[in-house]
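PROTEIN SPECIFICATION:
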Amino acid sequence: MFLHRRTPQLPTPEEALRGRATPEFTVPSRHTVLGNALLGPYPEGLEVADFAMGCFWGAERKFWETDGVWTTLVGYQGGYTENPAYEEVCSGLTGHTEAVRVVYDPKTVTYAQLLKVFWESHDPTQGFRQGNDVGTQYRSAVYTHSPEQAAAVAASREAYQKVLTGSGYGEISTEILPAEGRTFWPAEPAHQQYLDKNPAGYCGIGGTGVSCPIGVAPAGS
């Protein structure tokens, strides 16, 4: 007898796990690589960006290796369950993505440059999966913190769609929504900077190999 995996499907708010009023763990105070605080408030002048691009272990490393990034942390975003646990998110019953919060200095690295890292580090055309990782929590998403970020994401999506289409890829399925009203719930301590603590650990991050034209050509070219 063959076992058939159920097609991933986002839960409705009524179907989602209820969660809990307070977290069951304490987030570490410092980033193990960058040495800066994980949780805010952050120094004046820094900005925040939220990305989801598959398993958050490898995604976080992509950003902490980027010049101008002050700190990173992983968590759960875009769903309904309050203070979710990793196992709950993996069940598909919270509606959350595995997300990375990136705190950066816009004088050193622009949001457009972070978007280039985002687009090129995963395949945004795969829907509820990323490579062999299947589930709604692995969907591609950007949660924006300002109208400027929203406009930049839209322009970059249009630009990247053109080159992806030319390379034989399908439609970008990335979820693009305001971060407001979509709480970023920090993940458990073991998941923070996981690949720094476990250098040989699993990393499911892998892009299409198609260069994103951000910073090279305008979206309408």
